[in-house]
Design brief:
heterodimer, A: 284 residues, alpha/beta, Rossmann fold, 5-stranded parallel beta sheet, two-stranded antiparallel sheet, 11 helices, 7 strands, 46% helix, elongated, B: 177 residues, alpha+beta, 2 domains, 5-stranded antiparallel beta sheet, 54% helix
Chain lengths: 284, 177
């Protein structure tokens, strides 16, 4: 009997002990985690998801060539709007950023500092790039880069495709007709050297801040004039003109700031991904 | 009743002691885990203080304003720096990806101090090359070229071209140990 009583008392004590611990544990948990934490943390997660989106998508240009003819004065009165890139990327027609580095393994890119970024960022090998800071349509014909001219580079590399994007260093300073004439000479020379497919890209836009800057003459107006003349001249050759400019502009007609370096002229890393994805789609 | 109380005490007291010791054991375990974590953190921080090149370049980029930088991995290192890879213990290098400005940082920890001079010569040549490239292109950026572009400290050698070479050199000297 005593044993039975003891067992019952022991069981009761154990139940009380565990009940106390459970209650204590619950109260500790509830005191360390405020009930509203989940509510406040949820929007942060959503924000992270949203901000990562521009890394992989870009709004598609409505056309690849015609938009070059647009008059820059249409945008000159627009005020700077931090939402610009958002509105540009909210367009329904979206191109995914996906390119195959192997696709460009036999391609040669000729250009200026902007083009050097293709290899500086490591998107292409240095061998695929014949470019240097300051290169211009007037200097490319005689320039030596790492001891090679464009002619010796083409002779040794034997590219299947040649992409040319030149003019940013000269537009606004020299006559657009002269610059285009120099590029025409380059295209003709390359055609005489190899059977490569030759693609000439429009030069990219600049941001509104860079457009208004007094530091250089590189304006949207001058760029548009040059690109239109270039398109016309390249149309007379076997080379193909590609309007990359339209891929990079925002709804106000300036370089989409999401894709521009601090100077409003050069490219961010993701811009090269956009560029290569676009070029692969245009040329394959 | 006294007997019952005694028996109850005999059973409950050890149980309570056991239970408390279990709690104590848990908390000891927790504190031990915390101590281990802190020990790992301490080791990591001592590693940072010891100066892994990646930590040094990370600190430079955290403290000094840089444009968008692209990392130069081991697969492309030889494209930029003709340093004998067999003599490098570890390295970390970044370059301005857009090509707009000459910003570039590279920290090499060589396997031996004797290898530092050869690496230094390579880096000095690299600085001269970059200086020649940018002096007509961006004259406003030439202030980034000075007598602190290549610095050494023991087994370490660094190339520093940025907006504040003095600050970057201080970081290098304080962490390259």
């Amino acid at each position: 009997m005593i044993f039975l009583n003891l067992t019952i008392i022991l069981l009761i004590c154990i139940v009380i002990f565990f009940t106390y611990n459970v209650i204590k544990g619950d109260s500790e948990e509830s005191s360390s985690v405020p009930p509203f934490t989940a509510v406040t943390s949820a929007p942060e997660t959503q924000a992270t998801t949203v901000t990562s989106a521009p890394d992989t998508t870009i709004s598609a240009p409505s056309s690849t060539v015609e938009s070059l003819s647009s008059d820059s004065s249409d945008t000159s009165d627009s005020s700077e709007n931090p939402e610009t890139s958002q509105s540009a990327e909210s367009d329904s027609d979206i191109i995914s950023v996906d390119f195959d580095k192997e696709y460009f393994s036999t391609s040669l890119f000729i250009g200026d500092s902007i083009t050097t970024g293709l290899s500086l960022y490591g998107f292409l090998d240095a061998d695929n790039v014949f470019a240097t800071q300051g290169l211009a349509p007037s200097t490319v014909l005689t320039a030596e880069i790492d001891g090679m001219t464009f002619e010796s580079k083409i002779a040794s590399f034997k590219p299947k495709r040649v992409f040319i994007m030149l003019g940013t260093n000269s537009v606004g300073y020299g006559e657009a007709e002269d610059l285009v004439s120099s590029l025409r000479t380059l295209v003709d020379d390359i055609s005489g050297l190899c059977n490569s497919e030759i693609y000439v890209l429009s030069i990219p836009p600049v941001t509104r801040a860079a457009d208004l800057s007094n530091e250089n003459y590189l304006t949207i107006e001058a760029i548009t004039e040059y690109n239109n003349l270039l398109k016309e001249e390249i149309g007379k050759t076997d080379a193909k003109f590609i309007d990359f400019y339209s891929v990079l502009v925002n709804s106000e007609g300036y370089f989409n700031e999401d894709y521009a370096e601090m100077d409003g002229i050069h490219f961010m890393g993701k811009t090269y991904q956009v560029m290569l994805s676009f070029l692969q789609k245009q040329t394959s | 009743m006294k007997k019952v109380t005694k028996l109850l005490s005999a059973v409950l007291i050890p149980a309570i002691i056991l239970s408390l010791s279990a709690c104590s054991s848990n908390s000891t375990s927790s504190s031990s885990t915390a101590s281990e974590t802190s020990s790992v953190a301490s080791e990591q921080s001592s590693e940072a203080a010891a100066g892994a090149p990646a930590d040094i370049t990370a600190k430079m980029q955290a403290d000094i304003k840089f444009p968008s930088m692209a990392e130069i991995g081991s697969d492309r290192m030889s494209t930029y720096y003709e340093i004998d890879a067999d003599k490098i213990d570890s390295f970390s290098a970044f370059i301005c990806g857009s090509g707009a400005v000459p910003d570039e940082i590279a920290v090499f920890k060589m396997k031996s101090e004797q290898d530092v001079e050869a690496a230094k010569s390579v880096l000095l040549a690299r600085v001269d090359n970059q200086k020649a490239t940018f002096e007509s292109y961006t004259p406003d950026e030439m202030y980034k070229f000075d007598d602190k572009n290549v610095v050494t400290n023991g087994q370490y050698v660094a190339l520093i071209i940025c907006a504040d070479n003095s600050a970057a050199t201080d970081i290098f000297n304080s962490m390259a140990k």
